[in-house]
Write a structure and sequence with these properties.
Layout: H1 8-27, H2 30-47, H3 58-110, H4 115-126, H5 131-138, H6 142-163, E1 164-168, E2 174-179, H7 186-189
Antiparallel strand pairs: 1-2
Length: 194
Amino acid sequence: MHSESTSTEQIWELLSTKLRSFLLQRVSDEQVAEDLLQETFVRIHQKIEDDDVAAQRITPWVYKIARNLIVDHYRLKARDAATMAVDLEAHGDEEENLNDLVAGWLSKMISQLPDAYREAVELYELQAIPQQEIANRLGISLSGAKSRVQRGREKLKSLLLDCCSFERDRRGNVIGYVQNSPGDCDECDHGCHS
C-alpha cells in the first residue's frame, strides 16, 4: 500500500466504526476495545509506508492487525493469570513458613508445661512417637497416655494464645500474628508483627 494513495486518516474514516464493533464483539470491555482500536491505528500509521498493500486489500490488512492485537491481548491476560497463580503459590509457601516459625516456638513452650504433661507432649509432638509407646515409656495405660497428650496439647495451645493472637487462612495456616503483651513472651519477641 502506498502512503500517498491512502492515509491513516482515510482508513479511520472508512473503517473505525466497523472495527470498533469488531473489537467489542471479541473483548466485550468497551475500554479495552477502545484501547485496541487506538493501538490498531497506531500500528497502521507505523506500517503504512513499510507494507506494500494494494488499495483493494486495505480492509483485510487492517483487520489482520486488529486480530493480532486481540490475540496479544488474550496472551497477556493468560500470562497475567499465570503470574498471579505463581504469586498465590509463593504466598502459600510464605504461609507455610509462618507455620514453621510458630512450630519453632513449640519446644520452648512445651518446656513450660507441668511435668505431668511435658514429657508426653514432647514425645508425641516433637519426636512423633505413637501414644502406645508413650504409655509404655511412662508406665501408664494407653488411655492415660492419650489423656496426658490431649490435656498437654490444650495447655500448650493456651500458652500460645496467651502469647500471641493468630490470623489463619481458610485452611488453618498461620498467615499473621500479633504479640498480646509485648515483652511477656520470649518465644515470639524476635519476629512478632506488631
